[in-house]
Each structure stands twice: as structure tokens, then as C-alpha cells.
Design goal:
four-stranded antiparallel beta sheet; alpha+beta; 439 residues; 18% helix; Methylamine Dehydrogenase, Chain H; WD repeat; 2 domains; repeat; single chain
Length: 439
């Protein structure tokens, strides 16, 4: 595996990429002035970034680059300016958050806009997928955090039953703009940390759907990174310091105070990323400097100069790529069509028979111990197909109807099983909380 650091800025400084081990700059991708949280790696082959509005005031486009070429390869022009951008781990989907509070979900291989929904009252500021890609967490300028289940969003049967609550959880305790969100790998028992300009970081329980603790800092927090060990997180402040916060402290003191800080920058910390190889933290700041920190010694071990003081670094990601060009399965569908590039992303959601509503594909985590179907058809969609076949009335359709009815039963059974698994896990978590509280 090759570990690469990528970074972008709000000025037109392109996208820089560096080999984390050697510190050598690999390639500078041209024509990029991105939003904060507007840069993402799309699988192992592409980079995508949402662009700031141009001089004419038209909606900012989404640009896509191949890893081995500096020029923009694909330009897409959504219906509105996209502020936050994220891709799932396999690079099969890109999700964008709009200035209106809407969220858009595209399939990369086809460019189809599969789903659009209203998520927040104000602009979406950050988006992050859960470790298994089944959940999407969004933050907004209005101070709210929302947790979305992709299966529920695409299942029209469930949407009809819970039309007013498309989100799994809503967290509204921040009083100002949400600046960053991270989520650990705890599955349904994961912890979510959100940062805000209100000078707090809040830790949320996914299983309980509530706030666990709020940590007050001496400065507004612009960026977060999570230690995979699950005990601490790192918070980049507007006062140029990187603070260390506790996730699971039982002490009232440590629930409201920072545990410590490390500082090397002269200006505000704007973005953070954690790298497990060597236990490193990468930070970017308003002065255009990227620093690599050894977390054991709390000292910087390497520095990358991105924009030489001309503008801030507002995005950093650590990308692990397979050496030798063994690209993942996300690339195969458009390769079969004779193109090495994905098409532009659609501006409008398709209607009628050509829509993908009712179907969602979720790629399971390679470490998942729960079987996940790679293709999930909603019960409502299957039921509609059965009705259409009944109207045709031929002998051939009878066989197909029997097959679909069996699939319908399987779909209902699978949905019930997932619901039961969720309730069982929730019960276990609640019992552990009660037992821990009585010790």
C-alpha cells in the first residue's frame, strides 16, 4: 500500500499530493479552489472537489481528476452550489451537500443522480460516511447534525411509514455552525463527535441517539480527527492549537475541559487527518503549511508547504492506494463501457421508469462480521413488479411472478431480521450502560 496526503485550498492553488513516508510531492492537480470539506478521494482512481462560485456568480461545479493526470478530466454542474463533498469507501457513490440544505447522491459509474432530499434549514457544511458505508452523517450552518440510513432513504415502503422522519437521529444542541464531524468504527454502537464555532465539541451515542458529553474549548474548533483506539480525538482550534479531547471520560472535570494541546502553527488550524501508519496526525492551517505530527512525542516530524502563505489549506485527506494499479471494483462498470473516466454528474434527478428510486447498493466493509447484501431491492419495488406481471397474464410471467413473490418474502424477512438485530443490540447496550452506572 502507498500512503498519500492530499490537500486543497480556497484559493486556486490546485490539489497537492505528497508521499507521506518520503515527504516528496507527487503531483499538483490544477484548477482547484475548493470549499472546506469539499475534497474527497473517489476509490483509488479519482479525486473530486466542489468548487467555489466563479466570478459570474453561477453555481460552483464539481471537478474530477485522475490520479495520474494534473488536468481536470470531468466537470459537472449541479443545480446548485455544492459545499460539502464525500465518497463512500469503494468510490461507487459521491454525496454532495448544497447551500440550500439539500443533499445529493450520485452513482459515479453512470453519473446518475439517484437521490436528493432536504436535510437542513441552512447550508450543509460537512458530510461523513460510517465505517461500513451504511450511514451518512451531515452537519450544517444551522448548528444541526443529522444521521441518515441509506437503506431507509431508498426504501419507499419505509419512507411512507416514516415520511416525516427520514433521518435516524437529529442532534440540535450546537448553537453555531457545525465545522466538522467524525465517527468511529463501532457499528451501531459508534460514537459521533461534532465540532462547532460555538467553542464546543459534542460526543453523541449512535445507539442511544443522544448527547453523551459536551467539551468546552478556549477557542472555536475548525477541524477534528479521531484516534482509532477510541479513547481520544484531536480538535484544531482557531487559536492555532491542536487540543486533545477525551471520548469516554467519567470525570466531570474532563468532560468540560481540554486534556492538553500541541501547537506549531502561527495561525488557525483549519483541517486535520489521522494516519494509523506510525500514529501520525496531519494538520493544515491558514498560513498554508501542512505539518505531520508524531503523536507519541507531540512534535512535528515533517512539514509540507502548500501555498507559501498565499492562502489557507482547507482540506486534508490521507489516502491509501494499492501499488501497481490494482483498482477496486468501483472502476469496473465504466471500464466495461470502454472509458477510463466516469461521465459528468447529472443535474436533475430522473423521474419515471428510469429512476433508481427503490434500489440502493451498499458495499460491505471488508472487516464486517455481519452479512450484507450487495444489492438490496425494497419490498415496495418488488411488489410493484408483481402487479405489472399480473396484468400481463402470460404463462411465462407466472414463473417470474412466483420468483418475485419469493423475493418479496425474503425482502420482508430480511428487513425484519435487521430490525430485530438492531433492537437486540440496543438492548445489550442499554443493559451495559445500566450495569456500568451501578458499579
Amino acid at each position: 500500500m502507498e500512503t498519500t496526503v492530499i490537500a486543497s485550498s480556497s484559493i486556486d492553488g490546485g490539489i497537492g499530493s505528497w508521499d507521506l513516508k518520503t515527504g516528496n510531492e507527487q503531483l499538483r492537480f490544477k484548477q482547484c479552489a475548493s470549499h472546506a470539506h469539499g475534497l474527497t478521494a473517489v476509490g483509488e482512481k479519482f479525486l473530486a472537489a466542489s468548487q467555489l462560485r466563479n466570478a459570474s456568480g453561477s453555481s460552483g461545479p464539481i471537478f474530477i481528476w485522475s490520479w495520474n493526470k494534473p488536468q481536470v478530466e470531468v466537470k459537472s454542474f449541479p443545480v446548485e452550489s455544492i459545499t460539502a463533498l464525500a465518497a463512500n469507501s469503494e468510490g461507487t457513490y459521491i454525496v454532495g451537500g448544497g447551500a440550500s440544505g439539500d443533499i445529493f447522491l450520485w452513482e459515479v459509474a453512470t453519473g446518475k443522480l439517484l437521490k436528493k432530499w432536504h436535510a437542513h434549514y441552512m447550508s450543509v457544511t460537512c458530510l461523513v460516511f460510517s465505517g461500513d458505508d451504511s450511514l451518512l452523517v451531515s452537519g450544517s450552518q444551522d448548528g444541526s447534525v443529522r444521521v441518515w440510513s441509506l437503506i431507509r432513504l431508498f426504501d419507499s415502503h419505509q419512507r411512507q411509514q416514516q415520511e416525516r422522519t427520514l433521518f435516524e437521529h437529529k442532534f440540535d444542541e450546537h448553537r453555531m455552525t457545525v465545522t466538522d464531524i467524525v465517527i468511529d468504527y463501532g457499528g451501531c454502537n459508534a460514537l459521533i463527535v461534532s465540532a462547532s464555532k460555538d467553542m464546543t465539541c459534542k460526543v453523541w451515542s449512535l445507539s442511544q441517539g443522544k448527547l453523551l458529553r459536551s467539551i468546552i474549548f478556549p477557542s472555536k474548533i475548525n477541524a477534528l480527527a479521531l484516534d482509532p483506539g477510541g479513547s481520544v480525538f484531536y480538535a484544531g482550534g482557531g487559536d492555532s492549537k491542536i487540543y486533545i479531547g477525551a471520548l469516554n471520560s467519567s470525570s466531570d472535570y474532563y468532560a468540560t475541559q481540554s486534556l492538553g494541546s500541541v501547537s506549531h502553527h502561527s495561525k488557525a488550524i483549519t483541517c486535520l487527518a489521522y494516519c494509523g501508519d506510525g500514529n501520525l496526525l496531519i494538520s493544515g492551517s491558514e498560513d498554508g503549511v501542512i505539518s505531520v505530527w508524531d503523536l507519541r512525542s507531540r512534535k512535528p516530524v515533517r512539514t509540507f508547504t502548500f501555498s507559501r502563505g498565499k492562502g489557507p489549506v482547507n482540506n486534508i485527506q490521507v489516502v491509501r492506494k494499492t501499488i501497481g494499479g490494482n483498482y477496486n471494483k468501483a472502476q469496473s462498470s465504466w471500464k466495461r463501457n470502454g472509458s477510463s473516466l466516469p461521465p459528468p454528474l447529472e443535474k436533475y434527478e430522473r423521474k419515471g421508469d428510469d429512476t433508481m428510486d427503490g434500489i440502493v447498493i451498499i458495499d460491505p466493509s471488508p472487516f464486517a462480521d455481519v452479512p450484507v447484501y450487495s444489492s438490496y431491492h425494497s419490498a415496495d419495488l418488488i411488489n410493484e413488479q408483481v402487479k405489472e406481471l399480473q396484468q400481463q397474464g402470460s404463462a411465462a410471467t407466472e414463473i417470474e411472478m412466483k420468483r418475485l413473490k419469493l423475493e418479496y418474502k425474503k425482502s420482508i424477512k430480511m428487513n425484519d431480521q435487521w430490525q430485530k438485530n438492531y433492537e437486540d443490540l440496543l438492548q445489550i447496550v442499554m443493559e451495559e450502560e445500566l450495569n456500568g452506572g451501578s458499579d
